[in-house]
Amino acid sequence: MTTLVHADGVTKRFGAFAAVEDMSLDVHPGEIVGLLGSNGAGKTTLLRVLLGLEAADVGHVEVFGDPPADADRHALGYVPQGLGLSQALSVRQNVDFVAAAFSVRHAPALPTTLAAVADQPVGRIGLGRQRQLAFYCALLHSPRLLVLDEPTSGVDPLARARLWDTIHAQAEAGAGVLVTTHYMQEAEQCDRLVIMSRGRGVARGAVGDITATSRTAVVHTEEWSAAFAALDEAGLPVTLAGRTSRVAGTAPERVRAALDADGVPADVEEEAATLEETMVLIEQSSRHPGPR
Ligand SMILES: Nc1ncnc2c1ncn2[C@@H]1O[C@H](COP(=O)(O)OP(=O)(O)OP(=O)(O)O)[C@@H](O)[C@H]1O
């Protein structure tokens, strides 16, 4: 299979600090690869190395089979976190600028939401529309690879769903997509995930592979408030989902013991952890290696 991005053992340091350490990653046509990790994990830095905007200190990167600096820019669509739009230019002028840069003769019609503000400076339209415009511009030249850095951050749920429809359509048409996100609902839409913590790749695979080994103790009781308080007081990592307490990565026996100690009657079951719970457990075990 053609590989759009191939990164092998990439390390990027700023001074003595390694923002990315020994990261490897591939992106193939037609797949959506999600890059996850808490703030500062190194996602943006890795994207910038893959795009040739930062040079790797160690490791090997290829984009479309070439070093990033020589990669075919016409085959690449990039939406950076800051969107990369010219705030003082109008929507239409931004489009014309990108079309000229990529020699696009016939740009597709602007979506109606953008057409309605075509003559307004980008700085005056809302963030949702700005993101829509950044997407439109990134797709103008039909890229084979789409790199999206938190593309839906700060966007309302409906606009977010629309942007994800566009991402899926691109992948279905054969483009490879590499996307960073903090939203678990978005991560769950990716074909594969790569999870970073403190610069390193700490888990990878489909959502089901990543969550497969993590379990959560789930507490069912009428006395949900007392149950939560008892588990919290016992120092367990309890969260509330509605009126149900969940304790990820903790044996049900330990949870039951904490409830018994406070005399809270409850049924405790074990079930598969959610992706969010698994992410927290992965982050914890990468900070404090040892048995979970
Ligand atoms: N140019 C730079 N000089 C020094 N340190 C940097 C530079 N760029 C990034 N860093 C540091 O590298 C680390 C990784 O940053 P990066 O932006 O890649 O993380 P991230 O996973 O994308 O975070 P977020 O989810 O908040 O965007 C952070 O500690 C950041 O402060």
UniProtKB/TrEMBL annotation:
- Record key words, sorted: ATP-binding, Nucleotide-binding
UniProt keyword annotation of Nucleotide-binding present? yes
Q: What are the residue boundaries of the ABC transporter domain, all occurrences included?
A: 5-223
Stored CDD domains: ABC_DR_subfamily_A (cd03230)
**MF-aspect GO terms:** ATP binding; ATP hydrolysis activity
Stated name of the protein: ATP-binding cassette domain-containing protein
